[in-house]
Specification:
Layout lengths: L3 H20 L5 H8 L4 H29 L2 H19 L5 H29 L3 H25 L7 H17 L16 H5 L10 H30 L5 H5 L1 H43 L6 H10 L1 H19 L5 H30 L1 E6 L2 E3 L1 H22 L14
Length: 411
């Protein structure tokens, strides 16, 4: 029997290191690419789409290799160390033709660690419904630490962000080997493509509300990724300093609303809770659009947009994952979660980052206004309107399920 106290400590450190890696480069990469490497808007959008490609590749890796041949903790160790090596090389590259393919390689190494880490946790925790959300709080703390560490080096526009991530990735890989032994689950079994992609979940698409939910989740991903692609560039043009550290306020908000989510689900149900999540995305972009000409209110509006992250993420995606889980039976539960992940972080992210890059490139000002190089009001209004449209569709067509789950979860 695994010592649960020691296990929870190890998993907390694991989650911290995993998201420290992610938080030390993901939010700040855009301003580095735009201002230091001078990449164009479409190239920056494509760079953020690399994580989507990694997420699409990830189920094939986990389903066809990890689940059949190797213990999870050993794969996590190899992926962490290999990812650290790739990050060291990534920070030395200055042309898009070299940088982009290697970034895809890195994302394909990192993305599987998210699913594998969750799998190890859920396999060994005795009371996963209670302990897993608490452990996942350390993922937000890790992201915060990564961003604050980067800002302490003033590294938002420097390749040092990849060096910091590399060191953390080496530590992550070595620490992963200390996790409990988790043997492959499907030794000697044939795994179909449908199982890997979660296509068994398509049977639920016959339910109108479930189909509406999936459609809205895909559509909201399109405006969603405008924030991740654009926000650091916007703040750098406003000449903000310590951008990565300030953006970690989003994860502070995430921790707060993660605790509040079960209360909202209990009192409001899925429809109203998810509706609030979509509304928060629309408000976030309207705040940012208004901040462009907001004069004295510009800074409070931007911080308001950052602090809405907990509602944006937890009330939409975490509540959405719980809704999906409540609709699935035991036989297809894993398939359904794989399917929604494929939609949100795979296909949806790929489309969203691609269009964000297109919009960024299309809104370059003919003549720079001081340090402002883009028409930011037009940029932010685009996803604001998109999120508002999705909100209306969801409100009209989605129906509250009869069975309501009230337990908490996390990323």
């Amino acid at each position: 029997m695994v010592d649960q106290g020691a296990l929870k400590l190890k998993l907390s450190v694991f989650m911290f290191l995993q998201y420290f890696i992610w938080g030390s480069w993901y939010a700040s990469m855009a301003t580095y690419l735009a201002n230091t490497l001078k990449f164009g808007g479409e190239q920056i959008g494509a760079a953020y789409g690399a994580f989507a490609i990694g997420s699409i590749i990830s189920p094939f890796f986990v389903g066809m290799i990890a689940d059949r041949y190797f213990a999870s903790q050993r794969i996590l160790g190899v992926l962490g160390i290999a990812g650290g090596l790739v990050l060291l090389f990534l920070g030395r590259l200055t042309t898009f033709s070299e940088f982009y393919p290697l970034l895809i390689v890195y994302c394909a190494l990192f993305a599987p660690t998210l699913a594998l880490g969750n799998s190890v946790s859920l396999t060994h925790l005795a009371n996963a419904k209670v302990d897993f959300p608490r452990i996942k709080i350390f993922s937000a703390i890790g992201w915060i630490a990564g961003g604050v560490t980067l800002s302490s080096f003033n590294g938002e526009q420097s390749a040092i962000q990849f060096q910091i991530a590399a060191v953390a990735s080496f530590a992550f890989g070595m620490f992963s080997l200390l996790l409990p032994h988790t043997p492959p689950k499907k030794v000697g079994q044939n795994v179909t493509m449908g199982e890997i992609l979660g296509l068994d979940a398509l049977a639920l698409m016959k339910k109108p509300s479930f189909a509406i939910f999936i459609g809205c989740m895909f559509l909201i991903c399109i405006p969603l990724y405008f924030y991740f692609v654009m926000i650091a560039i916007y703040l750098s043009e406003l000449q903000w300093t310590s951008i990565a550290g300030k953006l970690t306020l989003a994860q502070v908000s995430d921790i707060v609303f993660l605790f509040l989510l079960p209360v909202f689900l209990q009192r409001l149900g899925y429809k109203k809770t998810i509706f609030i999540g979509i509304l928060a995305w629309a408000l976030r972009y309207f705040f940012l659009a208004q901040s462009v000409s907001g004069a004295d209110l510009a800074v409070p509006l931007i911080f308001g947009a950052i602090l809405l992250h907990g509602v944006c993420y937890d009330f939409l995606f975490i509540a959405g994952q719980l809704y999906v889980d409540s609709e699935a039976n035991e036989r297809i539960r894993g398939a359904v979660q794989g399917f929604i992940a494929f939609i949100l972080w795979g296909v949806g992210a790929l489309v969203g980052t691609y269009l964000a890059g297109k919009v960024l490139a299309a809104n370059v000002l003919p003549v720079a206004q001081g340090t402002i190089l883009h028409n930011w009001r037009g940029i932010w209004l685009t996803p604001a309107i998109g999120a508002a449209v999705v909100m209306v569709i969801f409100l009209i067509f989605f129906r509250e399920p009869l069975k309501k789950a009230v337990t908490g979860s996390s990323k």
